[in-house]
Each structure stands twice: as C-alpha cells, then as structure tokens.
Amino acid sequence: MSRNFKIIGVRPLVGCNKHILKNLEEEVFYGFYSNYQYINGEIQKKESSVPLGFYASNINIHAIVGVNGSGKSTVVELFMRIVNNLAYAVIGSQKSYAADELILIKNLKAELYYELDDTIFYVRIIDDKYTWRDKKGNVYENDADLKYFFYSLVVNYSHYAYNALDYKSEILGRYKNRFWIESIFHKNDGYKTPIVLNPYRDKGNININRETELASQRLISLFTLFELNGKLFHPDYPLHSFELKLDSDEIEEKYKKAENEYWPQLHKIQKIDFKTVNDYILQSWNGLFTTNNKDSKIKDLSEKYLTYKTISVILKYDMFRNLYEQQSKRTDYKNNPLSVIKHIVSEIKSDTSHITLKLRQLINFLQLGSYNIGIIGKKQLLDKFTQRLPYGEMFPLEQIMDLLPPPIFRTTFFLSYKTEKSRIAKVPITDLSSGERQMLYSISSVLYHLQNFNSIEGNRIIYDNYLIILEEIELYYHPEYQRRYIQNLIDFINMLGLKQHKRLDILIITHSPFVLSDIPKENILFLEKGKPRRPDNDDNTFCANFYDLLRYDFFLKDNAIGLFAEKKLEKIKEILNNESISQLDEEKMFILKQTINLIGDEFLKGYFIDKLNSYR
Q1: What is the DSSP code (8-state) at residue 59?
Q2: Number of Cα atoms under 13 Å in the Cβ half of residue 605
Q3: pLDDT of residue 25
Q4: In whole angstroms, what is the distance from residue 420 CA to residue 605 CA?
Q5: CA 135 to CA 137: how far, in whole Å?
Q6: Burial (CB count within 10 angstroms: exposed 0-12, middle 13-18, buried 19+), residue 594
C-alpha cells in the first residue's frame, strides 16, 4: 500500500444554488487528476503515467487552468463550501472568543472525492445533511474521524477575491450580516476547523501593513534556518543583521487588553480581580529572572507579557479554556485559585506547539540572556544558534524559532545585496520590490502554517494530510520567479523537515505557462466555459514548448502575441499582398519598412522583407 494523498475532484449536484454554481454544471465531475474518472456513480482509477514521488515522496502537485471566467475560482469555492459545511456538521459551529462561528451554507448540494493510502473517500453535502464514507463502506461522522480527512490552506492575494460582501445572497436569517467565508479566514482555534483562508480580509480589504508585520516575523526564522544550513532563502539577498528595540508601547497595549478585555471573559469562571490573577500568574512562572536579566525595564515588560500571553492562551484556545473551567470546579481547587493557575501554567509549559511559541521565546531569553538591544550581525546571530542547537543532518526549524528574539522586542531584519561598486550593503524587507515581497510573503505564509501543523501533538485533532491551494500565484511575479516557483516551493518544504507521515497535495490555479510546464498533463484540470475539456493537441504539458502551452493548454484562440501586434501583421500582409504596393508614397513606404524591422520573429521579418523586395 502506498502512502499517498490526493484530492480527486468535486461534483455539484442537481438543485445546487445557482449563485454557487455560476457557470459550472450540475452532475458534472470536475476531476483534478485525469486518471480518476467518474463512471456509473463511482470513481474509477486508471494506472498513472506520472511516477510515484515525482515531486517528492510526500508531495503531489496539480493545477487548474483556463481563460478568465472559465470557472477556476468557482471550482475552488465549491470545494471550500463543501469543507465548511462538513466542518459545521462534524465539529459544530465552533464559537469561541478568538475564532468566528462557522456558518452553514444553504442550498449547497455537492460531492467531494479524495484518496488516502489507495482508499477513495467521498463527502456528500445536501444542505445541512452530509454523508462521509470510503469506498470500503466505512462511515465517518465525528471530529475523531478527522484524522481520515485533511487540512486545507487556501492562499489568494488577488484584491478582488473572497470579499465577504460578494456573498450577501447567501446570508441565513439568524446570522444577520455575517458571511460564511468570514469564519474561515485565519483563526485561533488550534487548527481544529479543517480549512483556513489567507490572507485575512475585513469585508474584502487586506491590511497590507499587518501582512508585512506577520511576514517579517515568519521570514526571520526562515532566513535563519537556511543560513544555518548553508543555503539562501532568497538567492539575491542573504541575511545581513537584526536590530532589536524594546517594544514598550506594544507590550503595554497588550497588557491593558488582557486587563480590560480578556480577563473579564475569564472572570466569570474564577471571580478574582486582575491584580490578584497577575500575581498568581507570575508566581506560577517563577524562577525565570536570573542574574542575566536584571534590567528593570526588560523585567517589567517580560512580566507584563507573561501575564498577557497566559490569559490570552487560556481564553482563545479551547483545550486550555476547557481545562481552566474543569480545574476551577474541582472541590480541592474551588477555594484555591492559585493552584488552578499553577496547574494551567504547568500545562502551558509542557506544550510545544505554535500556540505557546512566543512564551517559549521569552522563557529562553530570560534563562539564557541571549540578546542585547541594538544591531546583531549575521555571524553573531548564527553563532548563538550553533552554540545551543544539536547539529544533525540539518538544524531543525522548531528549535530555531524557540531561540529567536522574544516579543518584548521589535525586531527588524536586514538583507545583504551588492551595490554597483560590488560593495555589501543592507536593505530592509520593506525596500524590496513588490514582486520580491509578494514571493516572500506568500511562500512564508505556506511554510508558517506547515510548520504549525507539524508542531501539533497530544490530545488534539491532528491532521497528517494537507491540501495547499495557491490561486493567482503569478501576481506581481517576473517570468523568472514564475519559472522557479514550483522548484523553490519543493525545496523550501523539504527544508522544513516535516514528519515522515505528513503528506501534501498542492493545487495551483494559474495563467502562467512557466508554472504549467512543471506539471504533467495528467495532473491538470482544463476548464472552458465552466466545463472540463481536454486541449486540442495530445502533447504533454511537462517540459512543453512555450507557444504550445499558450495556444492549446490555455485555450488561446488566436495568436500567442498581443492583439495590437496581430493587427499590425494583418495590415502588413494586406499591403504586401496588394500588387499596387508600388503606389505607396515615400512616407508610407518608410513607415512600412520601419514596422517590418520592429518584428522580433526573424523568420517572419525575413519573409516580409523578401516579399517587399520582390515588388521592386
């Protein structure tokens, strides 16, 4: 049995809401891999022409292509809706402080098919009813069964995508002005709900400044990881240095938020005032302040952050909030709130997931005294890691992240580049071009979530299979970035050191022939006017000719040149095929010769020149 994971396809059913269908057709199977076909009510699998482990032992990559309006985004949205309604049915609305309540999508009638370890599964959604089975007849129906499902990360930076206001017609009366899509944006539920949509949008608007801040935090660890392992995360920009400043205003703001917003929510469980709970939390984190950290300002900010983050973790994550409620009801703890806090803090200390990462960073800093305010050069930084990390085949990302500067600092990192005089200069990430930043932001978002998935352990919902949907990936990208994209993505994922049983299926929605030339034809869903359609030629897309990809696989109806250029060519042909060319005046003849000399295709230019000379 092979260790394999693939999303096979989706199928809208009769009666599905027309707003959901758009130009898709009922009862049509939209298959993502052509060796899987829907025949007589079931999926039949043919032998694949693509070698097993073609991209990597744990990675499959496939694509959807078609002209604008062909239905690519609609297929992705249909998939997202199916997962949303399945999650609503299996784990409930998931209302919590930090995660929006899931909302049932009405009039959704559709099926989803996927494969795990050579077993085909299907999910059928009919409004609020669902069926979830595999081909062997096994039935799945609760959150414990989600280990047989997968987690989906959808990334789309297009300005016009996933605007909640575009879904007004789908609002159910009891939700007033809330939209289902808002509940699957980035959320703090410990990756329980099996889908997340990035970047976060507020009524369609992306907060670019917030995205820059998040990307900077993620990229610090990724640039460090690659440098420690003798590689470059960006081929043109090595890591240069960090600059650390105490982030007093931010920490004070968080502390006030814990006091005025977070703790009142938990006060209902344990009726103790904020000052008392602050003291209890600091007692529970005792022993952190050593001779290495006597600075009063650092000590004050560290204490405030410990209080803020401890309360935040308890409030936002069900596993800690539920434990807090349970411990508060124990008869031996009922009148001893300090014991309750100590018990919760001990559980937080033992947690090694992404949830407690910033606490671990602060604890390591307080115990090791590893950073000073100011500039830290690359060599000085890397030495800090090599002295403290075990070295095996490569430095592990999770341990690198634990040792990075804690959140009491505002960290700015600089990259190196060579000037025109071959001198080494530094540049902040915000000075990079829009295409360079877009590449770094989108890739770091994917890697960040994969690392978080990898960190989850213990008595929680743990997904071993991940679907990554990357839409419009060529936005802002120079063709060279498009050409490198898939190889870079594979290399970056391999550097993460994911656990061996973790598997990825990557779906790319693209208009880029450079991206498509990295994907075999069998792994591509071709769409035209809402219907699956095979291209007119039988040639494979992998390593294919650029022109053929544009002409056939992207259904380019006419020439693979601009329409303006095409009309100029037609005019030249019209003139040259007219035997009265000799009647052209000197100025028009000069313009004709100039235009012919501009043609980049040497064969075509030579043909027109010969044709022109034949009339002389």
Answers
A1: E
A2: 10
A3: 95
A4: 37
A5: 5
A6: exposed
